[in-house]
Amino acid sequence: MIYVIKFIYSFVLPPGLFVLLLLVPIIWLWKRERRASVFLLIVTLLFYLSSTSLVSDLFIRGLERQYAQPQAVQGDVIVVLGGGATLTTPDLNGKGNMLGSAANRLLTAVRLHKATGLPILFSGGQVFADSGNEANIAKRQLLALGVAESDILVENRSLNTKQNAINTALILKEHGFEHPVLVTSAFHMPRAVVEFGQAGLSVQPFPTDYVSDSKFTFYPAKLSPNAGAVSITGLALKEYLGLFVAKIR
């Protein structure tokens, strides 16, 4: 019964509510303007499907499964890419926090550092006026997590993945590093590998921050519309588009 209630509840709030509201003009137009009604029905169906976990998982899984997490790290530096940060939110020892994906990437980098002793280079600047400088916040948090300052490098000017790659390449060359271990979200790794390759860097991909489970499982709740699925679908489509542009550039 609880799953039935959850399914019904998913149509009370957006995006499920919008799907129901779109049915009203579809029904109204059906006998008056059949073509317009059919067009609107197709658009509504696409919107509904894109807001389900069934579709969003399929999209994001296609990106996340392109690179497996290696069993052994082979490199001389850990390169971590930013993924968003707040500017003035309170932290234990300052202001500004990494957002979810960026925090997961940072956590993976710290664990790799403790396992290998490799230094960490964090790449990411301040993208928007109300977002934090990712590399600067990351350095503060790395120090708080016990990473020695001598093992931390920051690249705090990049605004996108292409700049991450170009600016990181310059710093690595300056410090004599040649075999970077690249840490970023699994869905972001395919585009990041292409961008770093175009910047002249051959990286060992170490994907983390997985969104979808490695094993596909279907249950009725995956057909419920939800805002999280819309976000993941949009995120996946953005990565596919970015990957396409990076390859043809």
From TrEMBL:
Q: Which UniProt keywords apply?
A: Membrane, Transmembrane, Transmembrane helix
Q: Which GO terms describe its biological process?
A: Gram-negative-bacterium-type cell wall biogenesis; peptidoglycan metabolic process
Coiled-coil positions: none
Task: Please provide one cellular component term from the Gene Ontology annotations of this protein.
Answer: plasma membrane
Provide the transmembrane region boundaries.
Answer: 7-30, 36-60
List, alphabetically, the InterPro entries matched.
Answer: Cell_Envelope_Assoc, DUF218, Rossmann-like_a/b/a_fold
Q: Domain DUF218, which positions?
A: 76-242
Question: Which protein is depicted?
Answer: YdcF family protein
